[in-house]
Design a protein that fits this description.
This protein is of the alpha+beta class. The chain folds into three domains: about 90 residues, Arc Repressor Mutant, subunit A; about 100 residues, D-Maltodextrin-Binding Protein, domain 2 (3-Layer(aba) Sandwich); about 100 residues, D-Maltodextrin-Binding Protein, domain 2 (3-Layer(aba) Sandwich). About 40% of the residues lie in helices and about 25% in strands. The strands form five sheets. Strands 4-3-5-15-6-16 form a six-stranded mixed β-sheet. The two termini are about 45 Å apart. The C terminus is likely disordered. One of its GO terms (biological process) is DNA-templated transcription.
């Protein structure tokens, strides 16, 4: 029985990875050993589970049915470990977290250092995506996103409010002029962050309470916040970006803040989770840890969890 359970887990990993070599690397095994386990599993069941070619793997009809049962077995084993660990006050198993490049760089990775030290039996898989992804399909336990939430199938809790700024390089401003009003921005080139949609608008609020809304125009578009900053540094246009992502460049003078008397509305950053009856202990503990970390950094955290 133990060999069958082991081979079911190996089979599931092969399907998840889409290749014997990638599964072998994650399992710490040789590719030939993984292939042998799958062959022995098929012989034991008396049916082919995988269709193999030189370029890809695909599931047979029987393989798809069996894969679903393998996932149930793996999840049951994980729940059993988690329940025992909870009784001992420990976190175990794998925690899958997804976020953007900027949030990972400036907040999540620094916060995770102490969290992982506190929970040595926990395995972390950090997925970096600047665009929204399907949490269910990617088997993500928790994602951190900024902006407006649209998907009602997830549960969310607001973690922080993050400041954005408008900025450009000295070379760009020397060539195109420094905007002295929101109206002047309409004559400038923008580097646009595509995950925010198209067309995009900027809402600016003056210190005296006046507001101005304008459309961003330009011919450079990217789905990466880091690439957007690099394009601004090379003089390609004006960007709106998280202050934390450009703070060093603003201090060094490589980028210059535009219209400092006007501000952009703060962006809400949310923790997003698949809808479950009870969130796993490892997810709840990470949420608590992130809220405390962000509060220490001076970012506003909100305690309640709401259904989106």
């Amino acid at each position: 029985m133990s060999n069958i359970l082991k081979r079911m887990a190996i089979f599931s990993k092969v399907v998840d990875c889409g290749a014997f070599s990638m599964a072998a690397k994650e399992l710490g095994m040789t590719t030939s050993a993984v292939s042998q386990h799958i062959r022995q599993l098929e012989e034991h069941l008396g049916i082919q589970l995988l269709l193999r070619s030189t370029r890809s793997l695909s599931l047979t009809e029987a393989g798809l049915c069996f894969y679903e049962d393998c996932l149930l077995m793996i999840h049951a084993a994980e729940r059993g470990q988690q329940r025992i660990a909870a009784l001992r006050g420990e976190l175990v198993g794998e925690l899958r977290v997804a976020t953007s490049t900027e949030f990972a760089t400036h907040y999540l990775v620094p916060a995770l250092q102490s969290f992982l030290d506190e929970h040595p039996r926990l395995t972390l898989r950090l997925e970096i995506h600047d665009e929204k992804i399907d949490l269910i399909a990617q088997r993500i336990d928790l994602a951190i996103r900024g902006g407006v939430l649209a998907d009602s199938s997830y549960v969310s809790t607001r973690l922080a409010r993050c400041r954005e700024v408008l900025c450009a390089s000295p070379a760009y401003l020397a060539h195109h002029g420094v905007p002295d009003s929101p109206q002047a921005l309409t004559h400038h080139h923008w580097v646009t962050f595509t995950p925010l949609g198209n067309p995009q608008f900027v809402r600016l609020i003056h210190r005296n309470g006046d507001e101005h809304r304008m459309r961003m125009t330009g011919r450079l578009f990217t789905n990466s916040g880091m690439a957007m900053k690099e394009l601004a540094l090379t003089g390609k246009g004006i960007i709106r970006n998280f202050f934390a992502n450009v703070e060093r460049e603003l201090r060094s003078g490589e980028l210059i803040e535009i219209l400092p008397d006007w501000r952009l509305p703060e962006i809400n950053c949310y923790a997003i989770m698949p809808r479950r009856e009870i969130q796993p202990l490892k997810v709840r503990r990470l949420l608590e840890h992130m809220k405390l970390y962000l509060q220490e950094k001076g970012l506003t955290a909100v305690e309640h969890i709401r259904q989106e």
